[in-house]
Amino acid sequence: xxxxxxxxxxxxxxxxxxxxxxxxxxxxxxxxxxxxxxxxxxxxxxxxxxxxxxxxxxxxxxxxxxxxxxxxxxxxxxxxxxxxxxxxxxxxxxxxxxxxxxxxxxxxxxxxxxxxxxxxxxxxxxxxxxxxxxxxxxxxxxxxxxxxxxxxxxxxxxxxxxxxxxxxxxxxxxxxxxxxxxxxxxxxxxxxxxxxxxxxxxxxxxxxxxxxxxxxxxxxxxxxxxxxxxxxxxxxxxxxxxxxxxxxxxxxxxxxxxxxxxxxxxxxxxxxxxxxxxxxxxxxxxxxxxxxxxxxxxxxxxxxxxxxxxxxxxxxxxxxxxxxxxxxxxxxxxxxxxxxxxxxxxxxxxxxxxxxxxxxxxxxxxxxxxxxxxxxxxxxxxxxxxxxxxxxxxxxxxxxxxxxxxxxxxxxxxxxxxxxxxxxxxxxxxxxxxxxxxxxxxxx
Length: 444
Ligand code: IMP
Hints:
21 strands
């Protein structure tokens, strides 16, 4: 990308096109073959990115997927909420597994810090009578973003300031303990103990802390390529998802700019990740959900259990109206279809191609959670391929019906399928030649 005589590095945003768990971790891992930096822009340790390399499983919660390639730089951006203890724990596990984490992983000095009182407030509110139960991951994510927006949060830069940290914890604990006791009858948290724990964590976190907006913009100016790693998915986005059954951050591609400090004009491509079917964890609308034996079958075949909480995921057929919506909100030009092999056994595959409300077709995705109750899915039945596709490496090797399934998704969404995941391992991947050249992945 040429700008004023200099050449900026190429960029791509990886975004979940459904309710999270689409397999973003794996595509980030594939792209880091030729991208130099991976920057996470939203969420916290509610995310769980699973990457399998030579049969070895890594679950990353906060540290971006780039860490699994030693030559790659990983950035936790300002849009992320960070639990320092969770981060340090993850880093320690990676280090113990022989993964390089020193000098290549950086945390934004502007990221917000999660404290134990955030978890206390979340647990209280999730279980309080009269409150809508969201089915959160109980990591304190929502209350931490509340404090950020309420301008009473603490940022990583402030965490490193011992006196500021002490005053912040004392004041916050006084306030949160009072509220939690009054509203939820929760016991008080000990401010002094919290300070000791966080002051120690701050010391250990210090070497990772940088002005990451500066780091990223400099990297781009030097011609380095950057992948922006989304967490969760479009339908969990605070603005565009199935509110209030959402997470508390901007999971969609727009969040990549605000969540890292890289301008929107520096974003070249948005890659949407979708499973070949649908899943969702937690409560909230899910138009194409399968209940009963069919749903259970998909859950078992797809091993659909949360990477972070182990909760069983709800399962359903591919929902094309939602995929079109995700395409519109994110500006998706490439789709990556994951877990195609989970459908291998089916003789016929239902796909939701549209919605009806009161018997009339509609293109609109409801703004109200209760609006989804009125939706009726219109299904189209595509022929299955009833042949194993696991571990296939080329488009030509795919059964014809599988290629037709993918072509149908392209036709209905207007986005091109650039990559297909045919199994959990790094190598179980099909790359379309056009995608390889557009993303400059040549040589692999
Ligand atoms: P929170 O992000 O913990 O506040 O949870 C809010 C909603 O987002 C709940 O329905 C969670 O199950 C869902 N959620 C949060 N993170 C993920 C994820 O990484 N994958 C799938 N669902 C998630």
